[in-house]
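Quick check before the chapter quiz. The format below is the same one you will see on the exam, so make sure you can read both the input and the output lines.
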Amino acid sequence: MISFIRRMFESKIGAILAIAFVAVIGLAFALGDVSSSISGSGVSGGNVAKVGSQDIGVAELNDAMNNAFKQVQQENPGLTMAAFIEQGGLEDVYASLVNRVTVAEYARKHGITVSKAMVDAEIRDISAFQGLDGQFNQETFLNVLRQNNLTEEQFRTDVRRGLYLEQILSAAGVGAKAGNSMTVPYASLILEERKGELGIIPSEAFVPKREPSEKELAAFYQANRATFVVPERRTIRYVEFGADSMANKVQVSDSEVAQYYNANKADYAASEERTISQIIVPTEAAAKAVQQRASKGESLSAIASDIGVAVSTADKVSRAGYAAQTSDAVAAAAFGTPIGNVAPPAKGDLGWYVVKPESERSIAAKPLSAVSADIRQKLLTQRRQEALDEMTGDIEDRLSNGATVAEIAKSVGATVQTTPPLFAEGGSPDNPNFKLPENLAPIREAAFQMDAGSDPQLIQLGQEQRFAVVGIAKTDAAAPPPLAKIKPAVVNAWKRSEAAKAARALAVKVRDSVNKSTSLAQALAANDAPVRQVEKISGTRQELTQNQGQIPPPLQMLFSMSPGSTKLLPAPQQAGFFLVHLEELIPHSAKDNKPLLAATNQQLSQALGQEYSEAFIAAMRDEVGVKRNQKAFDQLRAQLTGQGN
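Here is the expected output.
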């Protein structure tokens, strides 16, 4: 077992597979897997697999594949579908889809059910389907499905499959426990220490002085087209609008202003404001004691300091406003007591109040003529907002029925704006100086979340009551440009490549010399390497674990080698080659390191549980039966990579 673990640690592929396995299990439970599916285009009918009695259609695999590619492409905009498939994307998506259907078929066969109520509850908990009040909104749910070209039946089917996975696999790894015989060697491996040497052969010493021929350059470009891929660009059409768009559509008459004034006369009547000092204590007895001391001439601040509380002030408050802060009883005491006197205690929201009105100001009544302008503006703002809410609802209906950005712009009295082609992060290859204002960033984000060719969408711009209708005018897929357009860059890349080849050839000679019992320094000197300096490097495997992403690659490689061996490692950006030589491996025992043993045991136990889940799924596949239609699979691969007829 320990040799297997050591090999897993020393293999980059092994580490990736370990992480990928965890990701597959996690994705199996994620309902978001289908929330952005893209409808199949140009995909023939038929089935790519049969799982038990359930068929998996070519179109279903195509949708799942496009969705997975879209998610990965968000992290790597330059990725092409062909490259994604070359990296195993299609096989992984196929396996994940087969596993989901397998578990559902196994559950059906053995009478395990997922009720409609369970599916409904799961859907209600998905935040994407919730309205502004945080509750499930049926209209939002259906809109999201329409935007992602999904039917409610398709979505519910996938949710049901996810719930089957959760029910069946949640118990598969329960009780998985790694034994001490496994934990100690594994934990000891983490403490392992290694020492070695590092030499560097730089590519810059081998840069060709000549220019490549046209034939050489064309061949190089053809072989390295993926290196020059320009990420996907989208040209966005949008129209922005807000409450100001309602300016000419909403009016307020003089009679409406007067009606509002009469309905709210109390707000404009003569009133009194007071500034009030107050002490708050927990009991009526304490409040009475404070009031008695204050009545004898002691200041509230002195009393408060003596009993360990604070004096607070309510500045220029009306009776109604003060009552809202405290209680009607406290407000009555504060406004019923002459200025400068201490009022009797009164019960409020926070306890018992002893208050002292310090000053007052009388406010004259406001006639209609003095406030009509304010009332008119208030009513206009309110009605514009109501009209805006009504209009956005109408726009959503029109968009769902196929309205264009131009048609919406005409109806709201705004102008359609068109951006130059933009990258997902916002830059423009055709216009480097172009930049969307920060408040319009949601427009770009929405456009890159939309499917190419989908209907325009209504979005809200930030917290302000402003909106935009966003559409995609043109999508330029990620692709390499013509050679003539980027010839200088390709020439430089060819020179770097040639220099890297020469540096590698020399590095191979040095490595072979070291592996024949020559020291690294001697091998560098014997082969007339441009750099002869050798550095000592060392570290522990625990340091690698604790400082992921911060460990130099040569030191990481030191832990994937056998003692006495020498390996090559390319430097970043074709800068040269590292020569890494492992001199010594120093083992350490973890048998007395209880914290490390406990943490390691927990990780191993989780891994065992995941392995049990994978084995359980494999057994389910054997029981229900899985038949793959390789011909249909290959045809889909060809179509996705652009090789289909």
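If your answer matched, good. The first helix runs from residue 2 to 10.
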